[in-house]
Amino acid sequence: MEDRLIELAELFKVFGDSTRIKLLYTLLDGEKNVGELATLLSMNQSAISHQLRILKTSDLVKVRRDGKSMYYSLSDDHVESIIKLGMDHICEED
User: In 3-state terms, what secondary structure has residue 1?
Assistant: First the structure.
């Protein structure tokens, strides 16, 4: 059980970065390539690629190759649920 709790803490650390949250939130609408993400988030492609590597390593995004382009999407429904539950929590009225 201790190991699982440590893994959970590490997962939440990945969610602790606002750029990664923006990327995940943007991917709720469907897969996008690095260029599209960079444009939507007004960031350079290098910064986007760096954060996508972290998200991919944490199994939060998956990648699909189409020719020379790489398309990123959320790895599964759990990621979407975590994002939506987090938004529900912070948007709750007191």
Answer: coil
Which H or E run contains 61?
A: strand 61-66
DSSP 32-49: EEHHHHHHHHT--HHHHH
CA dist 90 and 56 (Å) reads: 26
CB 75 within 8 A of CB 59: yes
Q: Hey, where are the domains in the chain?
A: 2-91
pLDDT tens column, 7-25: 999 999 999 999 999 999 9
> What's the chain's average pLDDT?
96
What is the spatial distance between Cα 52 and Cα 56, in angstroms, rounded to a whole number?
A: 6
Q: State which CATH number among 1.10.10.10, 2.40.30.10, 1.20.1070.10, 2.40.50.100 fits the domain covering 2-91.
A: 1.10.10.10
